[in-house]
Amino acid sequence: MSVIALLGAGKIGEALLSGLLHGGTSADDLLFTERYPARAAELTEKYGVHGVTVPEAAKRADVLIVAVKPQDIDPVLDELAPLLGPDSLVVSLCAGLPTALYERRLASGVPVVRVMPNTPMLVGEAMSAMSPGKHATAAHLTVVRELLEHVGKVVEVPESQQDAVTALSGSGPAYFFFLVEAMIDAGILLGLPRALSESLIVQSAVGAGKMLAESGEHPVILREAVTSPAGTTINAIRELEKHGVRAALLAAIEAARDRSVELGKAHETP
């Protein structure tokens, strides 16, 4: 079994750690790095996995999963550079950062796979998109797929699509949470208690998501099934269209894509 090191133990790092353990990976085959000692001690007590330094992780692990914030990547790469070779596999979960950055900063031949997951990883329902760098083989992609399937679904996309994926599914849960928050407030506006409004909308969201996943129907068909002639729903849809909700979502997702591109460009060589 390969030794896997998670570089960065924030929410996504911890979620993947938990998923791997629940999927049968031994705690002895897992390591993590964490800058705050109290947090490292908490994770070790909770999961039985040892916290290590970045250099120790590089020396001991076969697969290194980089889950730090994009703005924190430079010192991590500085520590990894003299220690990694073609026998290592680097998996980047950092939004906006291209495989070319790792390939430029690490030793020649180090395989890199770029992944954009999302926060439903915390409940085992992530959507992760992976893209190989120029040194990553089909065997490397198989390793990454098997790791990520412990916490959700996985697709392979060309790296040229990763900024769009970041904007759509990487940030996507936030858009749903934003809409649910607004709908709960609407229930309160209409006179419902907050707890009841929240219960109604959250279960509606869970049910709608399950219908989308399991029915095989296009969202338009599912929406039309709720939209009776001259009924309540069509009046609501008219107001959404009148206020440009569809156009606002398109613009918002474009803005997220543009920010992902900016994060990558910030690490380009002059």
From TrEMBL:
Protein name, UniProt field: Pyrroline-5-carboxylate reductase
What InterPro entries does UniProt report for this protein, alphabetically?
A: 6-PGluconate_DH-like_C_sf, NAD(P)-bd_dom_sf, P5C_Rdtase_cat_N, P5CR-like_CS, P5CR_dimer, Pyrroline-COOH_reductase
One short Pfam name that applies is P5CR_dimer
Mark the transmembrane ranges. Answer: none
Major localization class? cytoplasm
Q: Which UniProt keywords apply?
A: Amino-acid biosynthesis, Cytoplasm, NADP, Oxidoreductase, Proline biosynthesis
This entry's Enzyme Commission designation comes to 1.5.1.2
The kind of enzyme this is, by top-level EC class, is: oxidoreductase
Q: Does the keyword Protease apply?
A: no
Write out the function statement from the record.
Catalyzes the reduction of 1-pyrroline-5-carboxylate (PCA) to L-proline.
User: In which residues is NADP(+) bound?
Assistant: 67-70
Instruction: List where in the cell it is found.
Output: Cytoplasm
Q: Which family does it belong to?
A: Belongs to the pyrroline-5-carboxylate reductase family.
Record-level Gene Ontology MF annotations: pyrroline-5-carboxylate reductase activity
Reaction catalysed? L-proline + NADP(+) = (S)-1-pyrroline-5-carboxylate + NADPH + 2 H(+); L-proline + NAD(+) = (S)-1-pyrroline-5-carboxylate + NADH + 2 H(+)
Give the CC-aspect GO terms: cytoplasm
Where the record annotates domain Pyrroline-5-carboxylate reductase catalytic N-terminal, the positions are 4-96
Which pathway does the database say it acts in?
Amino-acid biosynthesis; L-proline biosynthesis; L-proline from L-glutamate 5-semialdehyde: step 1/1
Pyrroline-5-carboxylate reductase dimerisation domain residues are 159-263
**Does the entry feature the keyword Protease, yes or no?**
no
- For this entry, list what GO says about its biological process: L-proline biosynthetic process
